[in-house]
Specification:
The chain is of the alpha/beta class. The protein contains nine helices and ten strands. The protein has an eight-stranded parallel sheet with strand order 5-4-3-2-1-10-7-6. β1, α1 and β2 form a beta-alpha-beta unit. α3 crosses α4 and α4 packs across α5.
């Protein structure tokens, strides 16, 4: 079980491992393209090889890719929907080129179609996206904070989508602690919350944890991250979340603000070491 954070790829992905090491990361998450949109940089054989060399040099293991934010597989707009599908497929291909383990994705919003139609469409477009894909990287849908009609604000919804798509290239989910807290899963009451999650999804499907405290209250449905122990979740629940991660060999990625993210990594490592 490794601990790290999201790392900038400014100047090229080959620069990310050194940045990760400077924050004492053991693993890392990156974008491979501008998260808000725009042309993706080319991943040449030389760049991919250098990236792998740098990861080995700085002992960064298990690389995670986050899809850009504009993805909306439930859009009623064909250009947006199919453009999103192409971007997800492209991210899987790019992740495979650089040896990344998983690609994390937000599935989109049901505001155009309504929940039932939106989920049906997401399932259909994911099947098409993954058709014929034989790369090494696998897809992880991420739970959301639930603002508006964003898909995936409950673990039961993600479980339903994974079951309906029924494709080995969806390995499971990425569980975000802040998003789940914001959508009503109260980590301050860990046992009850964990029992609720287990009733909604097979916990073996949790393959990555985004470890973020919350600036906002439980059930606020707002995506607002805080540094570990400095938000509404607090330190004690994270001790139990770390214990789960260790027991199940699930890596933890912090998506918290600089410069505090380095301390967040240190806090989580100390929790792990005490086990």
């Amino acid at each position: 079980m490794r601990i790290g954070c999201h790392i900038s790829i400014s100047g090229g992905i080959q620069n990310a491992p050194k940045r990760a090491a400077s924050l004492d990361c053991e693993t890392m998450q990156i974008f491979t393209r501008p998260p808000q949109g725009g042309k993706s940089s080319s991943l040449t054989n030389k760049i991919c090889e250098e990236f792998k060399i740098q990861n080995s040099k700085f002992k960064i293991r298990n690389i995670y890719i986050h899809c850009p934010y504009y993805i909306n597989l439930a859009s009623a707009n064909n250009r947006v929907r199919y453009g999103s599908a192409r971007a997800v497929r492209d991210e899987l291909e790019r992740a495979s080129l650089i040896g990344a383990k998983y690609v994390v994705v937000h599935l989109g919003s049901a505001k155009d179609l309504g929940e039932k139609k939106a989920i049906k469409q997401v399932v259909k477009i994911l099947k098409k996206t993954l058709d014929g894909y034989d790369g090494s990287a696998k897809l992880l849908p991420e739970n959301t904070a639930g603002a508006g009609k964003i898909i995936g604000d409950s673990f039961s919804e993600l479980a339903k989508i994974i079951k309906l798509v029924n494709n080995k290239n969806i390995a499971g989910i990425c569980m975000d602690t802040q998003h789940s807290f914001a959508s009503g899963y109260d980590w301050t009451n860990f046992e009850n919350t964990f029992d609720k999650i287990k009733s909604e999804i097979d916990i073996n499907l949790i393959k990555l944890i985004h470890s973020n405290d919350s600036l906002v209250d439980c059930g606020s449905r707002k995506d607002r991250h805080a540094n570990i122990g400095k938000g509404k979740i607090g330190l004690n629940p994270f001790k139990k979340i770390v214990k789960f991660a260790v027991k199940n060999n699930v890596d933890m990625i912090c998506e918290t603000a600089m410069p505090g993210v380095k301390e967040d990594i240190e806090i989580l490592k100390k929790m792990r070491d005490l086990l």
